[in-house]
């Protein structure tokens, strides 16, 4: 360790205040060498140092100070007695390491900062209000001086609860109820229940509040700083719209100078007591509660004034005011800037009118517009006719008949069919205020009750899976309706059942307004029936259809009747093999008939007796009268035919043809009448 140096002041006058080390004991040579060069910093040898005997100050430097009444610590700059302090000099790297590690080693790991305290909106945004300057336009309907007015408002948005209010500054003597237009509340933005937010507000936009559209033009400084701090880019400010009527009132009043008129004495003396009389009407029937009213127009030649009198009729219900317009000169064309002339307080002069109404403007047979009303002149008196003939050379002023003519009777026409429901049912809405159901042919319904024509049809389709499908058409003669039934076929992949309920089917080439429905004469063997986009081909029919067609042959064409007859005969004709066998075994035929009678008596009320023939015809595609045994038992199982009965087993045996065919015509006879 280094020893503290002790220095004494040199007495040399050339170096005042310089100290030199004092050495005790011997060793004068070394001591003198070290004293002669003290800047080398050589350490003192142990036992050779001594204290300065001339030193008299041993006080410590002050480390505590007071400033403005507070105790402040102060680092000493000198040691005891004013000696220089020996400070250990550290490198910058050591100082940085101590600065980084000393707090961590002394105090440990720092604790995380506490989260900021929650401040509710009503505290954070208390008394913070956004203000926007806006205006809205209000229509003025009953005023000749202004058609609309601009009303300036202030829109306030309260940040603490997102409420808004609209205030209109009060203008003295405005005559308008001003102040609070909309009280403070949350204002709806749309029909979905959303409310206006401060994000929806900006300069240069329109907002609609309760049916009124406000245009925002400017906002205050606080509003601008708040919106910009939230990342909203404000539109440039606009100028506030001014009310045109208010600006007009600010203009100075015009000073009008009445020009001097020419001398009218000659015109007065020449045309005194000469008046042109015209008969006119005002037709206001196009407006609500309007009517056609008669008037008399007087034109005074002495001063070119016009007077309009109303013609009253007895018991017309109107007050007897004789004059519609007082006698005055009527301007025809005003100058360009005459709209602002105060006509209610000052008379119009030649300064504001470029052209006046004269006698040549009143012509019989032409309309004339006076003060917004269009009058039609239809006649005049004899003096007026003579005046026009002498003055203007017009001799033909005929009287025009303006009597009320009865309007032509409007022919009632049905509107276009809208496609909902039957045409007859939809047309009932046009015949009466309370529609009634269309009338039905009761006699036809009573005569044809429970009369049904049945046909077997196939579907004409490009898809191969639809070629084997069979449909039973039922035509109800009482109502001319058609129903379509598809017999279910097991393992066919198609759900059978009702294909079409009872309804009238329109022919494809008929019009929508005058539909033509399918009738009994349209159904015959090979006929194509199109039902709502599906094309069906008639393949077979029952015997009742032939009987009905023969009894009503006038309704059918000879070709249709012949096609049904040929098909029935071909179907009922026995096969050649069966015919030979029947001629050989006559007793078996008798036995078959007896067995059929017994089964009919036993199964009189069986539920499958009506549609059993159609089910077998679906599988008999060639109309041969025979089906396979496998298909035969499938049909019997689907129709709940009691095949386990002894009589029915015997009937099946007798109807069998070979090992795999069964004549279903003989079998069906046991279940029909």
The backbone outline, from C-alpha atoms, is: flat
Q: Give average pLDDT, whole number.
A: 81
CATH class of the largest domain: Mainly Beta
Strand tally, please? 27
Number of domains: 6
Helix coverage percent: 10-25%
Radius of gyration (CA) equals 61 Å
The largest sheet is: 6 strands, antiparallel
CATH architecture of the largest domain: Roll
Oligomer: single chain
CATH topology assignment of the largest domain: PH-domain like
Spatial ordering of strands, largest sheet: 8-7-6-5-10-9
Assess the beta-strand content as a share of residues: 15-25%
Structural class: alpha+beta
Q: Provide the low-confidence segments as ranges.
A: 1-40, 581-586
The helix count comes to: 17
First-last Cα distance? 145 Å
GO biological process, one term: cilium-dependent cell motility
Protein name: EF-hand domain-containing protein 1
Region (Disordered): 1-37
GO molecular function, one term: calcium ion binding
